């Protein structure tokens, strides 16, 4: 058949039946866009959000009121937060190109939703400021036994406010406004913490490290106790409370944000407090009379500050590392240096400086009064010297010839210390001074072991050795014994009677010193041939003073 004949077979490109599947190459004439059901719902959601935002516009008449604290409509705050999330979802919907609100693309709907969302976020920023302003400077969630009903109600209100803050923070972070949220939170809470620390008199513009460096110790010393009291409260209350606030507001998936916010609020201020005590300890230098203040710093750090820092900042934080360094290195080194200076001062006392009539030596009074106060810090001293234990060599322990050191290290065990025996003084010569120098120049390792076991006991032994040396310089042997009797009896009285010093040195030590003083007195009486068995040791000492 010829082409084009009516019987010619249907060409493959001939039109298909209306029911046949459409060919990929088939084109259709442009039609007017239709609004789909999802698009209508999104548009209606945006319109509803616009109405709510108009009522709570951040620059409107409601700017002085809070959605969470002053709204007269129940659940209006929740509706506002849902509206903010809906606007964010609407933006994503319009940006997807699935709808064309103005028949020219999704641009108009996207722009409108973006503008409304930005307005909603400005409102939530305002809510953050209002809610944060309602918080106290010091956050306290836990109740004490002595808290009254008003404080309990206040705590309930605090928990409710934190719930509102969390809702606002989560809404802002979810739609990409985390920077604005964190900025507002940090600014308010940093100011609150600074105000709390200033009320505690622990941190203010006048208490910066540079200012402390210009002060003398006489200016620092009267303020140290109030600084330490304030620092204890600051770390145990202010920073721990701030940590819990951040944990409550930035919880769940936002926990890392809370960590960063807390660090920004508290880290610098906590570090400044530690720097204050670093400067104060450096000012103390090695003066023995300043040891008590340094030990106060040590106690504040170990008992309160470091545990609170670990709880708030974590055990691996820079603040924790700095606090531990301050306690273990700077404070401990300063304390050991002061004890060494005190020991050196005892040793430098002239051995020839005898007291007329064998009376109690001024050195004995000063040292024992010093040790009475130092006994209140025996735990701090034990901790400080224990920390030094592994930094000193001990390979020569037990191999030295300083047997007298061994007896001196037992001052705290009731053995009676290292005072020279009556047989040593029997010659009336200066032999005791020679034995003292032998003791003081013996093995450094053994000396360190004595400090580890009982630093106060070691200082007592150093004093007793010095008294032995002074006693050896009396020309009359009887006066040597009277001197030792008076000074040993004075030491026993200072230690005995249930004092803290007795707890450090041991009750047996005081009894042994009393017995030793009695022995010295018996030798003195024999040499003076005035035995009076009917009078007490104290009466004999009084009679001896009258004769001399």
Structure, explained:
The model is unreliable at 1-35, 101-105, 148-153 and 393-449 (pLDDT under 50). The protein is mainly α and 548 residues long. The chain starts with 36 loop residues before the first helix and ends with a helix. It is rod-shaped and about 120 Å long. Helix 3 (107-133) packs parallel to helix 5 (178-199) and helix 10 packs parallel to helix 17 (455-471). It has 21 helices and no strands.
Structural class: mainly alpha
Question: Major beta sheet, specifics?
Answer: none
> Considering DSSP H and I runs of 4 or more, what fraction of the residues is helical?
55-70%
Care to count the β-strands?
A: 0
Apparent shape = rod-shaped
Distance between the first and last residues' Cα: 163 Å
Keyphrases for this structure?
548 residues; mainly alpha; rod-shaped; disordered N terminus
Topology:
Elements: H1 37-55, H2 76-95, H3 107-133, H4 149-174, H5 178-199, H6 209-213, H7 217-249, H8 255-284, H9 291-313, H10 318-348, H11 362-374, H12 378-388, H13 403-408, H14 422-425, H15 431-440, H16 444-453, H17 455-471, H18 477-495, H19 500-505, H20 507-528, H21 537-547
Helix pairs in contact: 1-2, 1-3, 2-3, 3-4, 3-5, 4-5, 5-7, 5-8, 7-8, 7-9, 8-9, 8-10, 9-10, 10-12, 10-17, 11-17, 11-18, 15-17, 16-17, 17-18, 18-20
Gist?
The protein has 548 residues and is mainly alpha-helical.
């Amino acid at each position: 058949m010829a082409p084009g004949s009516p019987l010619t077979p249907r060409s493959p490109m001939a039109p298909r039946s209306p029911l046949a599947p459409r060919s990929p190459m088939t084109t259709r004439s442009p039609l007017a866009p239709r609004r789909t059901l999802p698009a209508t719902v999104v548009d209606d959601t945006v319109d509803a959000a616009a109405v709510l935002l108009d009522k709570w516009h951040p620059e409107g008449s409601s700017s002085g009121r809070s959605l969470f604290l002053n709204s007269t409509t129940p659940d209006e705050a929740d509706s506002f937060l849902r509206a903010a999330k809906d606007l964010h979802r609407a933006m994503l919907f319009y940006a997807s190109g699935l709808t064309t609100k103005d028949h020219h693309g999704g641009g108009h709907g996207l722009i409108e939703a973006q503008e409304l969302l930005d307005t909603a976020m400005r409102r939530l920023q305002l809510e953050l400021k209002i809610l944060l302003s309602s918080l106290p400077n010091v956050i306290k969630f836990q109740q004490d036994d002595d808290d009254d009903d008003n404080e309990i109600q206040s705590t309930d209100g605090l928990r409710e406010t934190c719930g509102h803050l969390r809702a606002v923070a989560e809404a802002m972070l979810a739609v990409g406004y985390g920077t604005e949220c964190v900025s507002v939170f940090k600014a308010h809470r940093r100011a609150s913490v600074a105000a709390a620390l200033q009320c505690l008199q622990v941190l203010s513009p006048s208490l910066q490290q540079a200012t402390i460096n210009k002060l003398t110790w006489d200016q620092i010393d009267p303020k140290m106790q109030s600084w330490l009291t304030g620092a204890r409260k600051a770390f145990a209350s202010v920073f721990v409370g701030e940590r819990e606030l951040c944990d409550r507001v930035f919880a769940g998936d936002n926990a890392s944000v809370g960590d960063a916010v807390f660090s920004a609020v508290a880290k610098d201020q906590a570090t400044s407090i530690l720097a204050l005590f670093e400067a104060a300890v450096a000012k103390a230098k090695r003066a023995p009379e300043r040891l008590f203040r340094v030990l106060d710093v040590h106690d504040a750090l170990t008992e309160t500050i470091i545990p609170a820092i670990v709880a708030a900042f974590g055990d691996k934080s820079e603040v924790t590392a700095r606090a531990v360094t301050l306690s273990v290195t700077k404070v401990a080194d300063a304390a050991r240096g002061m004890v060494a200076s005190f020991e050196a001062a005892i040793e430098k006392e002239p051995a020839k400086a005898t007291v007329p009539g064998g009376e109690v030596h001024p050195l004995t009074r000063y040292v024992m009064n010093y040790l009475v106060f130092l006994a209140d810090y025996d735990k701090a001293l034990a901790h400080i010297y224990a920390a030094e234990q592994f930094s000193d060599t001990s390979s020569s322990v037990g191999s030295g010839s300083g047997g007298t050191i061994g007896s001196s290290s037992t001052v705290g065990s009731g053995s009676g210390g290292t005072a020279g025996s009556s047989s040593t003084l029997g010659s009336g010569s200066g032999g005791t001074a020679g034995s003292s120098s032998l003791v003081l120049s013996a093995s450094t390792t053994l000396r360190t072991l004595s400090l580890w076991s009982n630093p106060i006991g070691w200082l007592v032994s150093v004093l007793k050795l010095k008294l032995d040396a002074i006693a050896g310089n009396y020309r009359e042997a009887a006066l040597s014994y009277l001197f030792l009797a008076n000074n040993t009896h004075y030491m026993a009285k200072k230690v005995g009677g249930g004092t803290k010093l007795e707890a450090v040195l041991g009750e047996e030590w005081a009894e042994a010193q009393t017995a030793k003083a009695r022995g010295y007195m018996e030798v003195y009486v024999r040499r003076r041939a005035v035995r009076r068995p009917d009078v007490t040791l104290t009466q004999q000492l009084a009679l001896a003073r009258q004769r001399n």
